Amino acid sequence: MATFPQWEYGLLSALGAPASQNNLTALNLWAQSEGSVTNNALATSGRGAGASTCVAQCGSSSPIYEYDNVQDGVAQMARFLGGSYYTGIVRAFQQDAGLSAIFSAINASPWCKGCQNGQYPIALSNAVGGKKVSTSPTVGGGSAGAGTGTSAGTGGDGSGLSACVVQFPLSFSTPIGSIGGCLLNKGQLKWWTGAVAIVAGLGLASFGVVMLAAYGYDNSGAKQAVNRTARTIGIGTSLFAGQPELAAGIAASTRGGGSRRQPARSRPASSAEPRTAGRLESADIERQYRETVRQQGPIGPRGGSATSQRVRERQRRGTSVAGSGRPRTPEQKRRARERAAQPF
After folding, report:
1. Looking at the structure, do residues 153 and 198 belong to the same domain, yes or no?
2. Among 28-42, 148-162, 195-209, 300-314, where is mean pLDDT lowest?
């Protein structure tokens, strides 16, 4: 029968598990994946009573210590297992569930998750898989070189990805589990760094697409087409609102590119030509003329201002310019010339 180290019997007793062949073998093979930390065979983290030398993760919230005697080391390992997320492991030992069940409980727990290519603890995995393994009566005693293993939850696959980068400042146990340990390891840091780089790359690519689209829009006919459409919409709105002069101005600016010409109707009249009036204005002038004639009477003995009447007559003639009111006939034009040539 194989010989097992004393700490295994003490740990099984502290966990309330039987010291069966399967339980002793499982503990022995498990400890082989953690190296050999004196009297702390499973390399549990935290500083318990009797801790002597820190061998790993020193200065963090989860240091790994060697212990002066077996009893103090067993107490630390039992405390860590019993007050953490490893109740499934403890239950497997208490039920003497066998090598396969104990391996599954350890491998599925957060204890060194993903270590040894996902087969942690590898020696126990080999035993479950039918490979020949051997136990060691000195594992955990420190004779194999203290501090060569990895602590629970810190990883030991040799890649360095499980090394802790950010440690929780405090580490203590609660009724629902332990709080503390590693918050961010190298593998997680690389994952987050890659995710941030991908998001930043997508943002830069989107910005580049927008800039290229804006450059193409500004240097193609699209911008001019949009401007022409906007002007056309403005012309339609002006006509609908009863502002033909504004619509004519927008249309002229559209046809002339950048030059803006005034509509012919809005140009100031020369001194030799009567002022051109719009339809509404010509109707108002006509009403004023008729009212003047009614109030002042014709030119002659009955009064009236020939000068003011002549001015209003001239304004009235200006309303008959083509395009502003009703067009004048040749006969009306001839009579207008004769009236303009008569003396007072």
Report:
1. no
2. 148-162
